[in-house]
Design a protein that fits this description.
The complex is a heterodimer. By secondary structure, chain A is mainly β. Chain A has no helices and eleven strands. In chain A, the strands form two sheets. In chain A, strands 2, 4, 5, 9, 10 and 11 form a six-stranded mixed beta sheet that branches. In chain A, strands 1-3-8-7-6 form a five-stranded antiparallel beta sheet, with no helix packed on it. In chain A, β6 and β7 form a beta hairpin. The termini of chain A are far apart. By secondary structure, chain B is mainly beta. Chain B is built from no helices and eleven strands. In chain B, β5 and β6 form a beta hairpin. Classes of the chains: A mainly beta, B mainly beta. At the A-B interface, β4, β5, β9 and β10 of A face β4, β5, β9 and β10 of B.
Chain lengths: 116, 113
């Protein structure tokens, strides 16, 4: 059964710092991996999607990498800003024996606070 | 363009009552997903529709939960005989295909008293 873990659960950094959020998954036979942002009381906003054949994706100050063989992904945020404060969720679809439905298995998230 | 919308945004009901939660996906998206999120947790998969059919309902917790998508667009999640443990945020997502980015709605916050 696929399990997704995110460490740390919470992170507080001063504005301007570069930071890395970690995600690990137990079954490397994934179809893709997505990173989401969730603001308090809101739905999820998709940040980046990495297909299983890709190694990384970039969008603005965000860069996500994928190492399928080791079951790991990182989300790198450059020059953090107070507006980046939110919970970041990692999710994978697929896994050995799973049908290709695209259903996502989520980690518990990392809550980020960027202090001005 | 319009994103995924969900109604109602909040629902308070009494134990034992029946509730319906509605999801309007992005136009043209054939894949639709329902998830449930408890406080402090990541969302958990409930059911996946490809077009009008439920292609994977393995996440539904029991037979009190049922979902439909009769015309391949709007979906309704139905919960019978609600229990206090059903209290959560119910999220809907849609995507062009089941291999692409899922776009989430704002969720329905269900509170069962």
């Amino acid at each position: 059964k696929q399990e997704v873990t995110q460490i740390p659960a919470a992170l507080s950094v001063p504005e301007g710092e570069n930071l890395v959020l970690n995600c690990s998954f137990t079954d490397s036979a994934i179809y893709n991996l997505q990173w989401f942002r969730q603001d308090p009381g809101k739905g999820l906003t998709s940040l980046l999607l990495i297909q299983s054949s890709q190694r990384e994706q970039t969008s603005g100050r965000l860069n996500a990498s994928l190492d399928k063989s080791s079951g790991r992904s990182t989300l790198y945020i450059a020059a953090s800003q107070p507006g980046d404060s939110a919970t970041y969720l990692c999710a994978v679809s697929g896994g050995e024996g799973s049908s290709n439905t695209g259903k996502l298995i989520f980690g518990q998230g990392t809550t980020l606070q960027v202090k001005p | 363009g319009a994103g995924v919308s969900q109604t109602p945004s909040n629902k308070v009901t009494e134990k034992g009552k029946y509730v319906e939660l509605r999801c309007d996906p992005i136009s043209g998206h054939t894949a639709l997903y329902w998830y449930r999120q408890s406080l402090g947790q990541g969302p958990e998969f409930l059911i996946y529709f490809q077009g009008t059919g439920a292609a994977d309902d393995s996440g539904l917790p029991n037979d009190r939960f049922f979902a439909v998508r009769p015309e391949g667009s709007v979906s309704t999640l139905k919960i019978q005989r609600t229990e206090r443990g059903d209290s959560a945020v119910y999220l809907c997502a849609s995507s062009l295909t089941n291999r692409e980015t899922q776009y989430f709605g704002p969720g329905t916050r269900l509170l069962v008293l």
